[in-house]
Design brief:
about 450 residues; alpha/beta; 6-stranded mixed sheet; 14 helices; about 20% strand; flat
Length: about 450
Amino acid sequence: MVSINGVTVSFGGYNLFDNVSFLINPKDRIGLAGKNGAGKSTMLKILAGFQTPTKGEVSRPKDCKIGYLPQDMTHQHGRTVYEETESAFEEIKLLQAKLNDINHQLEIRTDYESDGYMQLIQDLTDINERLNIIGADNTEEEIEKVLIGLGFQRKQFHLQTSEFSGGWRMRIELAKLLLQKPDVLMLDEPTNHLDIEAIQWLEEFMDVFSGAVVLISHDKTFLDTVTKRTIEIVNQKIYDYRTNYSHYLVLRQERKQQQENAAKNQQKMIDQTEFLIDKFRAKASKSAMAQSLIKKLDRMDRVEVDDMDTASVRFRFPPPAHSGKIVITAENAGKSYGDKFIFGGANFIITKGEKIGLVGRNGEGKSTMMKMIADKIKFDGSIQLGHNILMGYFEQDQEEKVDLDKTVFETIDELAVGDVRRQVRSLLGSFLFQGDDIDKKVKVFSCLAIIVTKLKI
């Protein structure tokens, strides 16, 4: 269905991929794996046709329809949820217009035996088949089914998209893709803004989806449930495993062990050969043999051990100032947006050292409660911080507040205060930014915002 042939992608003289090839078959369920920065999102963009490789090509049939959901996107406003989702059926409108034109030509033409007339008949058949596949006769039912599956309530269908958070607007984009019923669905972190019920619905949808799926996700359970093939990107090349993510991890470890054993055996042979070279080169009668051994070493392909993603983020919170036992006190706290009541009558006390999770369905007010505690929005009742409490708040859409044209170092240096100013480079290193990474612009990275928040804390 989609063929990747000898693809190379270079950035500033560095190859992200080097001459990689693989094939996406109909009904494939593929998970792209690899450490951060390996090029998973870049590969997805290339497959979707949004980025051109430096070398090689991506081949797909002319009528192959690609659906692509990026991690971050610019959302359009001015429509209701239903109207924006309905825009997914633009293809139906175009096909129906073509169908009307063909029917008109069939009525007025009399060259029944000509190639042109036969082509009209074929086009008519193809369009009707496509309309049947994408459900042209029951668009309203399809829109409702997908929106409800992704967590929307019927009463929300006619609200403006601008009234929803970035996560909910991402769901609208996902709904539009699913309704378009593409031949290949490419998803970059689709579960980031979904609750458990919506993830389960998406898993069930993927199970019956007739096309191929290629996705990136850090949700291992979702990968295991949906994918049956894993393509790992590592050291500028790929490894193709015909299995799900958990089994791939086992096979990957076995591959690394084999590489390490082969590298050790090769090194032993190299050491023995170098010993013989040193021994023979001192004797005139053996110099030719020494030269032969030197050439043998020069021609030898060295065994490489793939660099596995074993690095981990290392940081610690500096000791806070001494504070009182009571951290937060909420009394009759609640929130409404106009006539929309979110919740009310919240009364609780959080004490020092407690670790608390907020749970509930999407839209019940979890993020709203967090914003109330952080004093980001107005609300009813009161929420008071205890004595000497310093608040750190990581928002859901934190990445939207980062200047993408600044470097990593500039972004962090502007926020650092006090002694932290002298530790910015080492702090970035603890978050796995190495070498000249800190001098690159934020926009070349996928998830920088978490670092900003950790510094602010």
